[in-house]
Write a structure and sequence with these properties.
The complex is a heterotrimer of chains A (about 190), B (about 450) and C (about 325). Chain A is an all-alpha fold. Chain A is built from 9 helices and no strands. The radius of gyration of chain B is 21 Å and the shape is globular. Chain B is α/β, with parallel strands linked by helices and about 450 residues long. Among the domains of chain B are: about 160 residues, Rossmann fold (3-Layer(aba) Sandwich), CATH 3.40.50; about 70 residues, no CATH class. The N and C termini of chain B lie far apart (about 50 Å). The chains are: A mainly alpha (about 190), B alpha/beta (about 450), C mainly alpha (about 325). Chains A and C meet through helix 3 and helix 4 of A and helix 1 of C.
């Protein structure tokens, strides 16, 4: 039950993009096409899972025993950045199509706040291994949901007559704001703590 | 039995009262007829009479140019003056036979198949083909082709289209009233050729007299007469099938894919005349009406009669006429001038005053969704039109733009007066061009 | 002190481990990337106009490396880019003559009157599909601007006379407008060429004159002036096989005024200004007088040599 709440919260009420405003960079950058958004979501899912587990392990087995948990942020950034670099290399080698689609946005997740955010939140909230796993899963799913919704909206906006001053990033941000407002409506789902 | 209908559609002002009560009047053949050699969908007919030769009424002057084609017959007796390009009803010049009428109306000897119930189906089909019968609702698809479905697509139902949903037109209405027996016999011939189990006549309830007449004519047969709700485009093939049989023709498919053939009331009469009397299609019944027509009516007209002659007959003065349309107001073709001839597909001639035909500038789409509700094909016209504006033709194809039949319901409903049909037509042309390029 | 050492060693340890991982990964997942790709991307304009016929500028760069695209295939880049590409790829390049698009129609609303009211949407393709358009000439420019919508460089504009014109300075030669025109009026011409026939109506003289006052009738008078005026049936055209621009006086010989002299007039004036037309007609009349006088003088001076210089028949046609 607890796990289900964690997943739902990570996905909807605490949506990383639309409620916590983390990971806005890829949210705006890779949302022009639904197909690329899907690829990006998959990359984020993978990175979030790996980063959460790695940072969790490092926190439990290195930082806590040595009583240096104040090194949390810098160590996590180091680990996550390296992991993403590795992922990038792997994708470039194994799936050039996906690499072309994501292009410069893969390095973008290297220092992505959403990924760092999940690592820090895991530790702060004192989740155990299973919870960490599902929190990452839920957060990535929430990120993917927001990204796909937004990409769909932007594809539809291509046929809209947008005033010149609003074209491009401006209308994208306005739309993102409205989408965020809509997600705020999920806050009623949050369990009373 | 309550009246049937389909999903979507609109209720335009019908304006049928002026002519629906007027009996069909035969118009004397004009001094000169201009008979286009391509009056049907498919390959143009090939002229087979030299200029200068004498022709009789009903004589074949052009033979069909392929299977999907139809021969053309002379509508007067006299002398073939020339075969030359003349302005056609679609705006572009078409090859026409110009025949001078000698006024004798000497007719070609024709023989019918009185006993069509026992004659071979191939003979009947041949008869219909050689008489040049085409769909007379406006699409002018050669009828013999429609009556030759491939063997893997058996036809179980023939629907006779008596909806006449286009505003202003009353020609089919008059045919159903005045030529009821001929029309019903034509339907029986079509049913026999297709070996269909059921035959249905669909008539909109705004023609109660026609409903009664056809009902009593069909009383002794197993033909079903179905009242239809008054709605445009009730007479569209796919809409009629949906209303009468609750069957949906698949996207990109034909009525024969669901075992149905739809024929127009006028076509059924032409089939009957071709089979029982061997009489080629050289005249047709049409409606002349509109606000610029002082004396409107339904007329029996020789094919090839210039529209200008008919307008003069109805007392139209050219300077009062703001717009001239061949066909119905929804799907007909606006004309530049009246020097075009009546063809097999001309179901009506509409002349409007300048004040009635003003075109106001379009405004922005307000996303009211009325076009979506109106679309009988259940498309999203506003979206397809927006794809046209932004040249996103692949988006439009994904929105099933190719299923649009250009009935004009969306444009009629649009409060912003956006020319939706024009835009969708452009999108369709672009999609077809792209398809040709890749093929 | 110890806690500081611990912190330092933890950070260094993890950093070292990660560095090792990355080093191994780099080997394991090594992908050969041609360094010239980045160099090419730096020099290619990056407008993604599709003028090369490939999907975007990166597609062009890849095709260049694969050897499937020519180094002079990028119209916006021009000769400069061709040289750059040649340098990067280390190959011999020949610079192509720069070309611009030209709308080959001068028959505006005053020259080729409107024959039917058109209430449709502002799109040449829609108007053309509807019974061949609203203009008398079924080959001429409809001026509704399908090409303007297709141009990514803002090089095309409407004229007051119901035509469009392409600014040769802004045109990069990407050819998008050529595909957009339903009447195939737009064609590529050498940028340096100064004489153009602004008509593509292939009909006979009588039919052309019936629909337009500045249409080419195929009278072949210009052909007498220069062998570079070639004829496709009843339609004159400037051949593109010579290196030097054509002598603009050819334009003066045209009795219809369908040949445009870019050295003397601005295209926008030529298409819409009555004064320009008047000026041209005066010049053409003066030129014809001078020609006549020269010919007459030539005939008087050396009558016996006339037949050797030029065939008599052609002279008679030039001075009717």
């Amino acid at each position: 039950m607890n796990i289900l709440i964690i997943v739902l919260m990570a996905m909807l009420t605490e949506n990383f993009v639309l409620s916590k405003f983390l990971g806005i960079c890829p949210f705006l950058g890779v949302s022009r096409r639904i197909s690329t958004a899907l690829g990006m979501s998959m990359a984020v899912l993978f990175v979030m899972l790996v980063a959460s587990l790695l940072t969790y392990a490092i926190h439990i087995h290195i930082l806590l025993p040595l009583d240096v948990s104040y090194l949390q942020t810098i160590v996590f950034i180091l680990v996550i950045a390296s992991t993403v670099q590795l992922t990038e290399m792997a994708i470039q080698k194994l799936s050039p199509g996906l690499y072309d689609a994501l292009g410069i946005f893969l390095p973008l997740i290297t220092t992505n706040c959403a990924v760092l955010g999940i690592a820090v939140l895991n530790v702060d909230r004192g989740y155990h291994l299973l919870e960490v796993l599902f929190f990452a899963l839920g957060a990535a799913a929430g990120f993917g949901l927001a990204l796909l919704l937004f990409a769909g909206l932007r594809e539809t906006m291509e046929t809209a007559d947008i005033p010149k001053s609003f074209q491009g990033a401006a209308i994208a941000l306005v739309t993102a704001g409205i989408l965020s407002l809509a997600f705020m409506g999920f806050s009623g789902l949050a369990p009373t703590s | 039995m309550s009246a049937l209908t389909f999903a979507g559609g609109i209720h335009p002002a019908y304006h049928k009262d002026r002519t629906s009560g007027l009996a069909v009047q035969a118009i004397p053949a004009p001094q000169e007829v201009i008979i286009p050699l391509s009056q049907h969908i498919g390959a143009p007919a090939k002229a087979c009479v030299e200029p200068g030769a004498a022709v009789k009424v009903g004589q074949m002057i052009a033979e069909s140019g392929g299977f999907v084609s139809a021969p053309v017959h002379s509508s007067v007796s006299g002398t073939m003056k020339a075969i030359e390009p003349r302005p056609g009803p679609m705006g572009v010049p078409v090859l026409c036979a110009i025949i001078e009428n000698d006024g004798t109306d000497a007719a070609e000897d024709t023989a019918g198949t009185a006993d069509w119930k026992t004659a071979s189906v191939a003979d009947l089909r041949q008869k219909i083909q050689s008489c040049g019968v085409v769909g007379m609702g406006g699409a002018t698809f050669p009828t013999h082709v429609k009556l030759s479905p491939p063997p893997n697509k058996p036809i179980d139902t023939v629907i006779l289209n008596g909806a006449e949903c286009e505003p202003f037109l009353t020609a089919d209405h008059r045919i159903m009233l005045e030529h009821t027996a001929a029309m019903v016999e034509g339907l029986q011939i079509i049913t026999r050729i297709l070996d269909a189990k059921h035959a249905v006549v669909g008539i909109e309830v705004n023609k109660p007299d026609a409903l009664d007449a056809v009902r009593s004519a069909c009383a002794s047969t197993d033909i079903r007469v179905v009242p239809l709700q008054i709605k445009y485009p009730q007479g569209g093939e796919k809409q009629l099938i949906s209303a009468v049989l609750r069957r949906e023709v698949p996207s990109g498919g034909l009525p024969m894919d669901v075992g149905v053939v739809v024929q127009n009331a006028g076509t059924a009469r032409a089939v009957q005349q071709a089979v029982t009397a061997g009489r080629p299609l050289y005249e047709r019944i049409l409606t002349v009406t509109g606000s610029a027509v002082p004396e409107p009516g339904n007329f029996l007209v020789r094919i090839g009669t210039p529209v200008a002659t008919l307008l003069t007959h109805c007392g139209v003065s050219a300077d009062r006429m703001g717009r001239l349309i061949l066909g119905g107001p929804m799907m007909g073709f606006a004309q530049r001038h009246a020097d075009v001839p009546v063809t097999k597909g001309t179901s009506g001639i509409l002349a409007f005053l300048e004040t009635e035909s003003a075109i106001l500038p379009p405004m922005a789409c307000i996303r009211c969704g009325r076009c979506v509700r109106a679309c009988p094909m259940r498309l999203v016209p506003s979206q397809i039109a927006a794809c046209c504006d932004h040249r996103l033709f692949s988006h439009a194809r994904a929105a099933d733009a190719m299923d649009c039949m250009e009935c004009g319901s969306c444009a009629h409903e649009c409060p912003s007066r956006i020319p939706l049909v024009q835009k969708i037509r452009l999108v369709k042309a672009e999609i077809l061009a792209a398809r040709r390029k890749t093929a | 002190m110890t806690s500081m050492l611990i912190a330092i060693s933890v950070l260094c340890g993890i950093g070292l481990a990660m560095a090792l991982l990355l080093a191994v990964g780099k080997r394991a997942f090594a992908v050969e990337v041609d360094p010239r790709f980045e160099q090419l991307m730096d020099v290619i304009p990056g407008a993604n106009c599709g003028g090369c016929g490939l999907p975007g500028c990166s597609g062009y760069a890849s095709a260049l490396l694969a050897g499937t695209a020519a180094p002079d295939a990028c119209p916006p880049g021009g000769a400069e880019l061709t040289m750059e590409i040649g340098r990067i790829l280390g190959m011999e390049v020949t610079v192509r003559e720069p070309e611009v698009a030209l709308v080959r129609c001068a028959g505006g609303n005053s020259e080729s009157p409107i024959r039917a009211r058109y209430d449709g949407i502002d799109d040449c393709r829609a108007a053309h599909a509807l019974a061949g358009g609203f203009k008398s000439c079924t080959h001429g420019c409809l001026g509704l601007g399908s090409c303007i919508a297709a141009c990514t460089f803002n090089a095309i504009e409407r004229t007051a006379n119901g035509l469009v014109r392409i600014d040769p300075e802004r045109c990069t030669g990407c050819r998008n407008c050529i595909a957009a025109c339903p009447r195939h009026i737009i064609a590529m011409v050498p940028k340096k060429e100064v004489v153009h026939v602004l008509c593509i109506n292939p009909d006979k003289a009588k039919d052309v004159k019936a629909v337009c006052t500045v249409g080419c009738t195929g009278c072949k008078i210009c052909g007498k002036q220069s062998p570079r005026m070639v004829f496709d049936g009843a339609l004159a055209r400037v051949s593109t096989d010579a290196n030097d621009p054509l002598d603009p006086s050819v334009a003066l010989s045209c009795p219809q005024g369908s040949i445009y002299d870019a050295r003397e007039y601005r295209l926008s004036d030529w298409l819409s200004s009555a004064d320009t037309r008047k000026h041209f007609e005066e010049r053409a009349a003066a030129w014809k007088e001078a020609e006549k006088a020269r010919k007459a003088g030539a005939r008087k001076e050396k009558p016996p040599k006339k037949d050797d210089d030029q065939p008599a028949s052609s002279q008679q046609e030039v001075t009717p």
